[in-house]
Queue: 2 jobs
Job 1
Amino acid sequence: MSERWVELLGEILEDEDRAQMVEAAVGEDPAGLIAQLRERTEEEQERGEISALLAALAKADTLSSMEQWFVDRDGGWQPEHRRSGSLGDQAAGVEWTYEGSYTLDRALHGAPAVGQPVEAHGFTIFGVDDGGFTVFRHLDWAGLFAQLGFTLNTRVPLHLEPEPADDGESGG
Amino acid sequence: MPDGMPYHVEKGPTLTLIEKHLNTVGNKVDILGRMRAQDDANSGTTNWLSTAMPSLWQDQTLLARAPSTLTNIEKAWFGVGAPTGATWVGYSGDVNRIVRRGLRWALEVSLNLKPYDPLPSVTSAPAGAPIELFWICGIHWFETWVIQRPGPGGRIVTVIFLTPAHEGAVVSTTPLATAATTRAGGGYPVPSLEPDYLRVAFPPTDTAAAGRSHASWVVTHAQHTPYELLKNNAMGTRLGPQQAPALAYYVGSGGPVVVSPSVPAGGVPRTGMLP
C-alpha cells in the first residue's frame, strides 16, 4: 500500500504510475529526482512557472499534513512561481499558500473546531541529505496558530530546585 | 505584587491589606459611595483607588513594605503615567473600569444592594458579607469575577482578578520553596520559606496546617519539566504527514505536594491579617 503522499501525488498528476515512479526514485535515485524537479519544459519557462512535478510534489507533501487538521477551502494549495524553483546546485523549493477551514474537531492540539478559516504560508525545500531524499518545511506556524486563536503564554517558567530544607512539613 | 508573583494564584500582602480595608466596619459604604459617582458616570479617571480608599494608602504596614504600591498598580494595571500604556502582554482593554466596576459590584453584593439602591448611612450600615480577593495570572484577557455563596452569618464574597501576563512575568516550575526570600531569585520572584509558608507532610508531622485559620493551598506536582524543547521545526525529514509543533509540553513529577505559599510569594496570612 502506497504512502499517503504517493496517493495524493497520483491524484494531483492524474497519473498513478508516475507517482509510483517518483516514490521509487525517492528511495533509489534521490539526486536524479532532484534533477527532474529542477528541470522545466520550454512551455513552463515561457509561462514563468516551476516544473509541474515540483509543484505537485510540494502540494502532495503539504496536503498530507494539512488534511490531518483542515478541509481545503477555495483554491486549497497554490504555489508562488516567482519565488520558487531551483536552489543551490542540488535542491528545489516551492513557496506556497494553503487555504482551509478548521472543521476537524480537536484535530490540532485538541483545539475545538468551529470552522475557522485558515491561511497557511510555507516554503518547502527538496534536497539530498546524507544520500537520502529530504524535505525541509518552513511553515508559518505562528501565523497559523494565531488564526486558530492560540496565544502565547509569556509567563516564562523559571526552573527552580526546592531548598534542601524543604524536605517535609515545614513553615516559616 | 511588590514582591512579584511566582505562583499562578496570589493574595499576598497587598491584596490582604486591601481586603482588610474593605472589610473594616464602616468602610464599605464609604468606599462604595466614593466609587459610585465615578462609576455611574463611566468616568475614565484613574484616581478612584486613591480617592475611594485614601486611608488605605497611608497604612503603615503598606508604607513600610512598598510605599509605591498605589503608583505601581495604577501604572502596571491601568497604564497611568506609562507612555506605552499598561504592561499587559497581548492585551489592551479598560482595566481601570473593569476593576472599578468589579469592586463596586462586590461591595454591593456584600451589602445586599442593587447598583442604584440608596446607600445606608455609614453609622447605621451593616457590616456586610466579608470580601476576599485573589489574583490569577495567565489568561487571554482581563476579567474580574465576583463570586457569592452562603457563609456563617450570611454571605462570603470572593473577588478574583483574572489577568493576562505582565511584561517580565515568570512562574515557578515548582510550588516548593526554593529560597529564603521571594526576592532572592536573581531579579525574579521565587517561592520562599518566608511567613506563612507551609508544606503539608503526608502523614502529617505536626498540626500547623490544621491550626491556621487562613491559607491558600496549591496541590500539584513537585516539579514541572519541559518534555522536549522545540529547536528546529524545519529539520529535514521524509515526505509525508508531519506533526504540528507544540511550543511547550510540561511533564509533572513528584508529589503531589500540598503547599501554602509564603505571604510575600502570594500566599494567605495564617491569621488572615498581616502582622
Note: Residues 184-275 of chain B form one domain.
Job 2
Amino acid sequence: MSGHEDTYTPRSSFEKWMDQRLPVMRLMHGQFVDFPTPRNLNYLWTFGGILTFCLAVQLLTGIVLAMQYVPSATEAFDSVERIRRDVNYGWLIRSIHAVGASMFFLACYIHIFRGLYYGSYKAPREVLWILGVLIYLVMMATAFLGYTLPWGQMSFWGATVITNFFSAIPVVGETVVVWLWGGYSVTGVTLNRFFSLHYLLPFVITGLVVLHIWALHVSGQNNPTGLDVKTKSDTVPMSPFAVMKDVFAMAVFTMLFAWFVFFAPDYLGHADNYVEANPLVTPPHIVPEWYFLPFYAILRAVPDKLGGVVLMISAVAILAFAPWLDTSRVRSTKYRPIYRWFFWLFLITCLALGYLGAKPAEGVYVMWARIFTFYYFAHFLLVMPIVGIIETPSSMPRSISEAVLGKGGGMGSTAAAATAPEKR
Amino acid sequence: MLKIVRMLLVAGAVAAPVAAWAAGGEEIHIARQPWSFSGITGTFDKAQLQRGYQVYKEVCATCHGMRRIAFRNLYEAGGPGFPEEGVKALAATFKVMDGPNDDGKMFERPAKPSDRFPSPYQNEKEARSIHNGAYPPDLSVMAKARGIENTSPWYQQLFWDMPRDIVMGYQEGGADYVYAVLTSYADAPSSFTMADGMNYNKAFPGYQIAMANPFAGGDGLVKYTKGADGRPGAPETVDQYSRDVTAFLMWAADPTLEQRKSMGWAVMIYLLVTSLLLFIAKKRVWASAH
C-alpha cells in the first residue's frame, strides 16, 4: 500500500497454510508491524488508536446493554433503571457506555484539532480528512439517537427539537418530519426506530474507520513538521515503537475515563434526564450533551429557523472543505507564525460557543454567540485562504530526521522536499 | 493579540452578571451540604439510611411512591442493612395486587421481600384527583433528577468550579437541592402574591410549591429509635429529618454508590501502575531509536 517492502515470512506451518488461502497475517504484518511511522510523532498522534479503543468499548457495552434494554415508551426508562439496579454490574456497563460517548467525542475533538494544527488535511490526505468528517457526522447522529433511548425529559425534548429541524426544509419539510417520527409528534414509535438506527450506525462508523485507516496507510501519517517522509531514517517501524506509545496513551486515557465512570458518572449528563419523558411538560432549559453545544449555539444565533439549521449543518460540513480553503504551502502551523494566532482564536471560539450553547438564548449571550459564530465561519472562509497567501513561513528543517536528530543527523540533508517552501 | 484576549476576558466578566439580571429574577442560591456519601471516598451511614427510611415511611410514603425499590433492597449490601427477618415482617404489613388466580381473579396478598414498594395511588390520575391537580412524583430517582445551578461568572466556572467538581467527584447536587427544599419553607413575604393552594418555599424555582411542608409538625414529628443510653439515635429535629430522608433518597437513586467508589479506587490504582509500567516500557523501546 504505502510502498514499503514486504518482509513478512510465515513461520509455522499453519501460518504458511493460511498465507496461501487468506493472507491476513501478511496484511497485518505489513500494515501494523512493519509499517514505517515518522519518528517524530508526538502524543497528539495517539488519539487515532484511542478513538478505535473507544469505538470498541462502545460496541461491546452497547451490545450487552441492548440485551436488557426495552425500546418502548412505557418501558424504556424502567428498563434502564432495571439495568442500573438488578443486572449484575449493569450500573457499571451503563456508566461506561454513557461516559464512553463523552470520551469518544473528547478524543475526537483533540484528533480533529491535531489535524487542523498540523495541516493533516492537506494533499495528499484530502480523502482521509473527508472520511474523518463523515465519521464525525455519523458519530453525531449515533450519539443523538443513543441519548433519546433512556426516554427521560431531555431525551424526549432533545428528540423533538432536533427532528423539528427537518420541518424547516422548504416544500417537503412537514412530510419528511412526519415520516421520520412515524406519527405527528415524537412518540414510542419514534423511539423504537431510533433504537434500530442507533444499533446500526456504529457498524457504519466501523466501515468508515476501516476506509479511514486504509486511506491513512496509503499516504502515511503526517508529522509535527509537516514534511514528507523521504528516507528510511525518517521513520521507525510501527511495532514496537508506535504501538508502545499508543498503548501507554490508551492507559492514561483510560484513567480519565475511569475517573468519570467511578467518581462522577452523571457529571457530564443532565439531571432532567432522570425525569421520565412527559410530552405535556417542557423543561425550562433544553440543552443537548456538551459535545453538541457549540453547534447548538450557532443554531440559536440565527433568528430564522431554516437559517439556523442551514448554518448549523454548514458548521460541520465546512470542515470537509479545509483542504481547498487553506492556501498555505506549508502544512504545519509550527512554521506558520501568523496563522498560529488564528488557530488559537479558533480554538477559543469553539470553547466559547460551547459555553454559550449551555446558556439560555437571551441577552448578552445571543450577542456573543453571533460574534463567535461569525469568527467560526470567517476562520474557514477568510483566514484560511488569505493568511496562506500573505504569510511568510518561518525556517523549517530540511527533513524529519534533521528535526529529530539535529543537523548532520541521519541522511536528512539530501534532496529538497517538495513541501519545503522557498519564500522570499 | 494579547490585548484582544484581555479585552474579551473583561467583556465576558462583565457580561455574566448582567445576563443574570436581564433574565429577570434573583437567582436562588442553594448551599452545598456535607454528606457522608460525598466525594471520592464517600460511604453511606447505615444508621442514617435506616432513620431516613423511617422518615420516608412515616411522612412521605402517604403521597409519594418509590416503585423501583424492592423490600429486599433494604437488607442487601450497600444499603440501610436492616435485618432480613425484620424486612420480611415489614413487607408482610403491606398489601400488593397479584393474579390472576386459577379462577381468573386478581387478588390481594401480603408483600414479600421480592416485591417493590407499593405506591399510594393506582395511577397518576388518581393522585392528581386527590391533590387538586398536583402529582406527588415517585421518589426512586429524585436525588439524581435534581441539581443546583452554578451562578458564578464564566471564568470561575470554567477554570475553578468545573475542575474542582470533577476532581472531588461532586454528584450530590440533587441531595443538596432536596435538603434545601425540605428546610426552606417559610411564610411568604407581604410583597409576594401566592397562587391558590401553593406554599412558599425559598429554594423552589418560582418560590411556589404545591407540596405543603411535610415537616409542619415540627421537631419531634418522627420518633427515632432510642440507643443504649436511652436517647434517640439522632436529634429529632426538622433539620435532621431532612438530612436523613435525603440520604435515604440518595441511596434509593444510587444503590451501588459504595461499590462504585470502592471499585473506582481499585481500578485507578491498577491503571496507575499499568500506565507507569507501560511508560517505562515505552521509554526502553524508544531508547533504541536514538
Note: Residues 143 and 249 of chain B are 6 Å apart (CA to CA).
